Amino acid sequence: MSQIRKPPTMADIARVTGVSPMTVSRAFKTDSLISKETRDAILKAAEDLGYVFDATASNLRSQKTDFVAVTIPSINNANFADTVGGLSETLAARNMQILLGYTNYDMQEEERLIEQLLRRKPEAIVVTGGKHTARARKLLENAPIPVIETWDVPAEPIGRFVGFSNAGVVRGMVDHLVRTGYSRIAFIGGDVGRDTRGSDRRQGFLEAMRQHGLDTSRLIAAGPPPISMREGANAMARLLEQFPDTEAVICVSDLSAFGALTECQRRGMRVPEDISIGGFGAYEIGSICVPTLTTIDAHARDIGRKTGSLLLDILDGKQDVGDVLIKPQLIVRESTR
Amino acid sequence: MSQIRKPPTMADIARVTGVSPMTVSRAFKTDSLISKETRDAILKAAEDLGYVFDATASNLRSQKTDFVAVTIPSINNANFADTVGGLSETLAARNMQILLGYTNYDMQEEERLIEQLLRRKPEAIVVTGGKHTARARKLLENAPIPVIETWDVPAEPIGRFVGFSNAGVVRGMVDHLVRTGYSRIAFIGGDVGRDTRGSDRRQGFLEAMRQHGLDTSRLIAAGPPPISMREGANAMARLLEQFPDTEAVICVSDLSAFGALTECQRRGMRVPEDISIGGFGAYEIGSICVPTLTTIDAHARDIGRKTGSLLLDILDGKQDVGDVLIKPQLIVRESTR
DNA sequence: TAGTTGGATGGTATCGATAACAAAGGCGTT
DNA sequence: AACGCCTTTGTTATCGATACCATCCAACTA
């Protein structure tokens, strides 16, 4: 069960096979110059000895790790998970491995995390969001690798970005609701100051409402992000108490929107007849619950895929690479008239 | 924006500060013997030069990576995400980093992944599930590090395990439903042969039904795992066509259970009056949807935390470490009578 | 036949940090 | 004053794979 002797190295295989360590090394690289017989003999010896390639040594000498560092706010969020999935599938073609870290929606934690990740000498770093602490920004700027910011359009991009305007998407939702005939519209979001994308969405709500000359006081802060279904339900309860005449609610995500929906159902209110609900993120739940939820699809997986191919282009030294502006899409479903 | 000269090393800091590289190295280790003045001078020089610690070199020389390799079926599953979260928070105390890989519910892919992960020389490896390909098993057995299997009670454990009987939990659910007075009970799960935990749950269903002398033919295969809400809804539709007199359904997860619930709602059926529904996993949705879902809480986060502390105990050389048997808990809610 | 080409292989130094050991200096004790 | 001990710092070798350059030899050309 447990090994006492230490694991074999390429030198051991070389000894057994009667070749030089250099040749053993070549046998493990797919595109190298080596005869088929030699390679087969080496691979067989490796299998027999139970050899496991040592990436730490390879990394140091070749100054390549095949790591791509990625920070996301939370692993428990289908949107970010999808982005990581899309990125992962794109990078798999190059045998690159994702080194994932969670910031827990905290810029301080992000800073700490970025520092830790950079120590592992990744080939590139992908961060979620376009706002960072001063120190984190400096770390990223000084890093000798490509930096990509996602899920946002940074005020001052560090490297390239793949994102969209979080304020813009909510403006679009407000515009749609106003066009449909609503005017008493509320917003349920997280506490200001933590989730920067959430704050941007709330900002977009305020701007759009002002532009339409509508009341902007219907704001419910549902606690620190991420806002759960339960917190969405609680926020809806508070909203209905404070502003019983509200006609429509925009929630910071489909999860809180679903929570809000269940609160209405428990109170015997009909959606959308008595109140309309809009979400964000095109989570599966919004497409299947009763009634289905009007939402905004940010194309989370696509963000990951496009980040991946942008990254590969940069690493390949392509010259004409540019930022990628994602076009989120309003999906009107049963929860709004 | 981009650096031309190559990043500074400890040797550079040593030159600037007028000490030996060894002393610089010591300045970065918290518990080492070094005077406060020297350390401060070194850290300041490091900051000025924009030094970033090189973990690849450190890893090679010290033969320690502080990596813990983890395989999970899918990142897009709140249960496994919770387990990773619990593990992550436990390991954070030791500054260990999780190296995560997704098997996509595929044992072949798991084998490939385990091989890739072992190359990075992790300090330990945590795999989800207790069934593996022969080669994967061999790789794990030969690995000179602790191996922990989770979310299952392996027939032949490789190292330690932190899990529960997937068949057992469903047996418990069936027993409960039978006790409550149901007899025409169905099971909605994934296709056999892929998701081993899902297959075990289905097996538990069959065993329990036979034990009670009940009809075991009400089985719906909803496609390859993971089973989405949509697939749960479709499966429910098929179930209602094939076996319209079904009294209760057990779904392989809360997500498919919720899908099944929505299908009933769209058909104007009442839950639990017309049909009862049970799920698995204690996802948030089951605690908030209308009606709330009867489910089984496998204590996903707890599995992660316990795996973490078991791991630390093993790495610390504790002698009395044993397997951890998780006690999943039946939570009876509104979706069953 | 001599010269050239290119595929296959070997030798050596090196990536950057640190384990292991050595040594210098300060302080207290007898 | 001599000794030992502890704190702080330095020296050297090393982790394991591979970049770089050299070499060998068979096959082909002129």
UniProtKB/TrEMBL annotation, chains A, B:
Pfam families: LacI (PF00356), Peripla_BP_3 (PF13377). GO terms for molecular function: DNA binding. Residues 8-62 form the HTH lacI-type domain. Keywords: DNA-binding, Transcription, Transcription regulation. PANTHER family: LACI-RELATED TRANSCRIPTIONAL REPRESSOR, TRANSCRIPTIONAL REGULATOR. This is LacI family DNA-binding transcriptional regulator. It comes from Rhizobium lemnae.
